[in-house]
Predict the 3D structure of the following.
Amino acid sequence: MTSHVPHPVRTARTARTPRTPRSDARDNRARILDAARAVFGEQGLGAPMREVARHAEVGPATLYRHFPTKQALLAETFAEQRRACHGAVRDALADADPWDGFRSLIERICELHAHSRGFADAFMTAFPEAMDFAADRERTLLAVRELARRAQKTGRLRPGFVVDDLILMLMAHRGLQDAPRATRVQASRRFAAYVIEAFGATEGEAEARTPLPPAPRLQLSQPPSSP
């Protein structure tokens, strides 16, 4: 009589390593952030949270479990752009030539804003609760003020420039956001070149220029309301 040897039981562990709740949560979070970058990047801050959830293929409850508020989602969505903005400010201030530092900061800010409509809106919007964006904006304005002071001492930046002119420039730059992305980036670079040329002053020319009109005190826009 031969003994029967049972076949090994095929368990779920041997068949497939189960996903843990933690790994599922990480995947959901990553999908949400990818979706938010795409949705806010193209549609701006007015895009509703439900559109992000739909794009990420998760339910609204999952979205709000990871990001209870839209401000929290935006801060994480644009973390990479915020780091790039910090780097642009740091590099500009460290440049031995103040005018070169000033020019590079203008170019890099325009580039960041051109690539993401949402980041441009968040940077320029008065979110009462989004202190991260407010701090980024203040850091950038302080850097521009310091770079302008240094560049004006060298005679390369026109004397009439004030830091509110940067806000004026970025408000005008937002007009490019309706163009397709490829066209928008190309137009942004040309726009930045024109602006830098307008800000600059060749040696001995500054006094001969027509004085600028008074600088307006510009107010940041309020965030668009969306569910």
Notes: The two ends are 74 Å apart (CA to CA). Confidence is low (pLDDT under 50) at residues 11-15. The first helix runs from residue 12 to 15. The CA atoms of residues 6 and 14 lie 17 Å apart.
